[in-house]
Amino acid sequence: MRLRSKRRHVARSDFFSLNSLATSVIAFAASPASAVTFTPAPSPNLDLSQLGRVALAGDFSGISLYQFEEQNEHSFRSNGSEKLLARMPNGLFAPIVNTDATIRTMCALDTDNGTVVVLGGNFTSIRGPDHGAPAMQSNAIALFNPTTAAVTPLPGLSGSVNALLCDQDRNTVYLGGSFVGANSTNALAWESGRSWVNLPFAGFNGPVMSITKASSGNIIFGGKFTGLGNASTPSTPDGQVINLSTASISAGFSSTTLGFSDPRNIICKTSGGDGAGNTWLLSDNVAGFWQATFKHGFRPTKLRLYNTHQDGRGTKTWRFTALPINGIMNFTYIDPATNQNASCTSECPLSDDKSVKFQDFHFVNEIGMNEFRIDISAWYGSGGGLNGIELYGDDIFSYAVNDFNEPSCAGLGFPSAATTTGPWVVTPSYSSTGEYLSAQLMAPITNTSASVVFTPDIRESGHYSVNLYTPGCIQDNTCTLRGQIKLTGQMTADPTKSQPIDVDLYQTNNFDKYDQIYFGLVDASSSSFRPRVTMTPLAGQSLTQMTIVAQRIGFTLINSTGGLNGLYEYTPGAAVNASEFMQSAFNRLGANFSTGSVVSALATLGDVTFVAGNFTTSDSLRNIVAVKGGDANAHRLDGGLNGEVKSMFLNGTSLYVGGTFTSTSDNSAQRLNNVAMFDTSKNTWSPLGAGVDGRVVRVVGVTMNITSSTPEVVVSISGDFDQLLPFGGNPAVEVDGFGVWVPSQGNWLKNLDLPVESVDGVLAASILNFTGGHSLYAGSLSSSALRANHAAILGGVSLGRLPVDIEPSTDSASPSNLTKRDGTSFHGGVNGVATGVFDTNNGRNLTILGGHFTAKATDGSTIHNLLILDGSDNDRVTGLSDQISSNSTFLAMAVEGDILFAGGKVTGTANGASVNGLITYNLASKSFNTQPPALSGGNGTVSSIAARSSTKDVYVGGSFSAAGSLDCSGVCFFSTTASQWNQPGRNLRGNVSSLLWATDNLLLAGGNLTINNTAPTFLARYDATAQSWNIYPGADQLPGPVTVLAAGASDGGQIWAAGTSSRNGTAYLMKSDGSTWQQAGQSALQPGTDIRGLQIFSLTASHASSALVNEDEALLLTGSIVLPEFGSASAVLFDGTTFTPFALTTSESPDKPGSISRVFSERSDYFAKSGGGHMPLVFVVLIGLAIALGLILLIVAAGIVLDRIRKRQEGYVPAPTSMIDRGSGMARIPPEELLGGLGRRGVPQV
């Protein structure tokens, strides 16, 4: 709807009422059935009735009024962490569960105890939305109860979950991904009340990407696997040597004999020979122990012991204790005397036969440990001892800390190793499995800042799962410094036999995790080729400081039954028989795929299951097909697609797909460009606009109000693209990997000229309107109630769009010229709208915006940095000529009569004259007039303009020293009547940031100033009557240059000042009553606060009394205000005691919110009250005059009446009035008798 005006047509603005949406969904916030509730924020109660139109200007792409305490300005996180999101009553997304990584999938399951939402992903921790909620360790999966809002981790998995299916019929949740859990790999089930349930086929030999339920009730798994199976041990077990040489070795009751007392004598000794330096002995006839302590964890599978025979001594029985679990281990071994298998626990024997060089003992249970002790309880001869010890395992690791890799003394041909470059240091293990390397990097972050090359010891070629293990960030307190890494590598000597590793990963996990970085063929190490993985920081990260960590990479050999290729149909309750695989249409379809195929997405509609991914078949089916129940063969979808499909979303008969394609395989449908819609009822493909310019990874459904209060389903896409491609008159739109398609409008959300919300970020999954709750979303989003670029209309409890399309400028403002320190602007690198004014003079209805931006004029031309919106001419949009430089920035504007004064960092020509700092423009003739002489000196910037209404002089402040040939430092005024510059006083020097007329004769200037060349000050005042400057009373109490000024009372006796402290660079806010200053918000305004505007507003309801602010007023701060426990807000209300967010913004940047530069209004009656408030002074005077005049008239009339009454009572009669009589009398007097005495002296006589 439109903002209504009583007097004239105003510039059209589309309003989004924050109350209308609340009415339609308020039950969600208040329903006792849902614990997901939101707390209403206090009403701001601003009285805008006396101001006319009010606008907010700044650098933002979306804006919201603060209505619920759960709102914030947090930008969507770009560090990989995602959240479970719900909608607030005003339509904004709010986090209800936080994780440290990605929520990739979720589903809802109705149980006997209510509905539970299952969350799956690659997170390692999960916590509630409260600011101080602790992070709970939760690897890859967790439960959320929408009734109680409780979050419950499900322990037992290690890895990541890619797909979930909640089977309501069987009360079972099926999981798929890249994980190990229970006794399964990559596939598992969970039943309420039974916890984990192993599937009969023990999982898959590759990752599962998607799961669906076919019309038959069978479960369909899709992914990148070639068979059922689990992790396998190498064909030659116990092949990895555990490094004892770098362990800390100790012993108890060692012999004191020289050369035999050191317990390290037996490390790396494999000859079995006795002697000093080769043998470790215990003291005579005493039990003792040998102990090794490591700085990493390991799982041994075999222990090799070499007994000593020195002087008839030797170990007879021993036991092995794993630490820190303090468990005595069980072994199997071959008895050398009988050659029979045997087992032992607490008294394991060791042969005294000299022909037995060593004995191997195999661990019955593979237990993780980082320390062990061998206790010798019996001995041969005079005491026990050993000649050697070796420990082996099956786990294939390459450690970043080289001391943990296989020892050089083992004589291996290709031992595991790591090489590093960069400032790596060894970091304690804390709660991790072992020590690791970390490096502190400073910007710029490049791929050469640091590196680790991992080289494993691969003994046999085969299919491996390659996993990167990353320590958590909580333990070493580096969560805020973690970033992204890049992994590259080649796994086969012949590059055509494997895909190279090229993976980007986040290291922001709170707890330890692993990520699968490769699955496929790995060649054994040889003299000509060794598999290697290189880790480096991801180049180009916007981090000033980064901590990168490196621990280990593991290689797990995968065994399988074979016979599958990316698809498997599982019949619950039935036995698995590999010989019957080909009886399934799904299994047959997969078997027909080319080698290396992947099924990424599955969806079921009725009796049709859609299968999509990256595959081709011998009968030319490509990337997406349909399998219909009962049909033996798959069906082509109108030619298929010519590229990979990564994700699908099914809404009714519309199947939305995203990936890397451009058209159908037969080119029958073109311009599909990575995202398209397939109509299942018509069997046809349709483009979504013209698509996007990069890969789409996720397609997710969202409900949104577009044209009414009834939500409709729209389609979000996330991926690696930068542009929504142009189509049908819609220009290309720059984005950051996110877009929303609105099917009812046939257009992208960003193209709609409607009052719609703004959403940006990443969406990975959604559950729309599930049983017992409203929609839930998984991802990382920033949202605003209204999509509005850089300017919005404020109308009470609603926000409105201006009918103009404003975008950030492609030309960057020079930060060197616009800095906070020089006091000439509010912030460096100004973008968006910095200033604005409404002009209603002489019947005009103009909205004028200035800053650093581009916009489209009504005639299609491009406007730079200053636009004029004419509400009296159908909202026609115009700008200035191209003669003004496009990299100019306007910071201040004022209108005097028909002339617009616009200042800032402005250069170019106007009307043939060079301009610098300031231009004037005739709004009546719509043209440049004769320009004032250019400003010069300083950096030639105007930061503030203040017109003096009584003289029609326009004062400008900034960083300059001359106006034309006139010496005029910091402040100069232009006389509109004389058309010339004048210097106000001659005793001010410096840079001015803000000007304010406190009264008609008193001008205030804030900045970095000097009076009389001797007295520095941050605030000065100019007496227009005396034409001189002096220091404002108490200005020495200001901690730094004043950048913003505002009146604190209508008579100018009180002022507010804000700026930046010269001592510590923090923002300050102070108020003066004309003699003393009071500080406000010392503890509330946090570091990072940037105050760009101040304005007192009247209120419709009073707040608690305060010494700083009247109870019927509030101070509005604009900019980027950082509050404790809240974060930043673009506008904040201060009642003298408390700062409360008022308006929040978002920006196109994923790393920061937006900001509001200032608020401006049609009228400046900020201290006027309505409905019981104080009447403006002018009306008081007029009414007083009217009353006085009325009383005088009444008195005169009463006097006349009383006089008439008196005369009548005293007998007075009217005198004759006949003209005849009067004429005859006059005729009898000669003229000379009347006039003759005029020239005589003396007193006339009668």
TrEMBL record:
Residues covered by the Rax2-like C-terminal domain: 918-1168
| This protein's record includes keyword Transmembrane helix | yes
Single GO cellular component annotation? Answer: plasma membrane of growing cell tip
Sorted UniProt keywords: Membrane, Transmembrane, Transmembrane helix
User: Which InterPro entries does the record cross-reference, listed alphabetically?
Assistant: Gal_Oxase/kelch_b-propeller, Kelch-typ_b-propeller, Rax2-like_C, Rax2-like_second, Rax2-like_third
- Residue ranges of domain Rax2-like second in the record: 237-386
Q: Could you tell me which residue ranges the Rax2-like third domain spans?
A: 397-558
- TM ranges: 1177-1202
Short name of one Pfam family for this protein? Rax2_2
Q: What is this protein called?
A: Cellular morphogenesis protein
- What is the protein's species of origin? Parathielavia appendiculata
